[in-house]
Design brief:
By secondary structure, the protein is of the alpha/beta class. 42% of the residues lie in helices and 15% in strands.
Length: 286
Amino acid sequence: MAFTVPTDVENRPVAVIGSGTLGRRIALMFATRGGEVRIYDKSKEAGEAARAYVAENVAEVAAGIEGGSPGRASVTDDMAEALAGAWLVVEAVPERLDLKKSIYGELDRLADPDTILASNSSSYPTSQFIDEVKHPERVLNMHFYMPPQQNAIDIMSDGHTDRAIIDLLERELPRYGVYPFEAHKESTGFIFNRIWAAIKRESLEVVAEGVSTPQDVDRMWQINMGTPAGPFRMMDHVGLDVVLDIENHYCELAGVENKSAPMLQEFIAKGWRGVKIGRGFYTDYA
């Protein structure tokens, strides 16, 4: 079925579903051209923290984008209110397939007919959670990394996505300081994340086996690769609960044991989930 792409996008809001580590960063990027971003979360406390994050950082980030200007973020726990008039919706809820299926059924029912429905899922292709969607031609993966520091995005069709949507996003997204790269066929992990998954898994296993420590792995990585942070510091920023969900999914698909799961589960049981809690593999987070 053909899809009519949204028009007048500069004057329409973007909705972000979920206010976690990545949800708030995605909202920040879409608030850099003077418009409105609506953040939906059932937790008013989490939503307000995301709104405050955008307000605190948007002026600085917008200043680094050609044509950028600080916009505003609002928060609601009403899905219909969040979606009303939005040209684009970005789902950033936890990596649980049943949850995503339910969310997409609701998004498809409530969003305007020309609204693009994009998923920030880091490991699931959208083809796996459109069971309740009547208009799959407007659904696709749009996977962010860690903006505003890492601003590449994977874009991938759900197998039905109207080509005009991908063309529109390739034109529009760089205006918000983020840069799309299309996966031309379905790929679990998309492009960069598929490569990163192998690095992350080996890093975790080296520590789980007692061969090295997170700090030494990171320091070797920094020296050899010339980057400001290593794999374990980056995993702390993602959130160790999110890392565990992703690793379990990848290992299930590959039919292999997740050897690092006990270590991650032990950290999570202690409440050490990374930067968002103040402690993960590192303890120096304010």
